[in-house]
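Just curious. Protein, please.
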Amino acid sequence: CSGSHALLIARPLSEAAAQVLPAVYERFCRDFPLQLREMFGELDVDVVRMLLTSREPGTRPSPQVRREAQRFAAGEIAYEHAYAALFTYLVSVQTPLPASDEVAIAIRKVLQGAGWKMVAQQFQLAGRKAVEHCLRQAYRLLLSLEG
């Protein structure tokens, strides 16, 4: 739904709009993370971070998802084995997403599905290994903020 991200800052212009807005906002909160890869892959990572942070906190990541993210951050499992947990963890973080290059890299790669080469070029990194290192740092940071 084109322009959905603009709804976060929309103000209802009528009583009818005011009644519909909560349902639209709920749909946005539910669907936006899944739409990032297919529909919003080119959206600026700072805008994505802001939109994700402005959503109402959803379901906390399950202990299994958190464990998988921890294992990835520690270098125990590969990105491909941890991807589902990394995606789930990133969209369910309960604290505001920090404005760091590492988190921006996680948004671009994990949520928006950019290729390794594209992410490396965008963030001026040497290649996949450097991108993975930054991803692990991002998850260490996010896990530490969770407490």
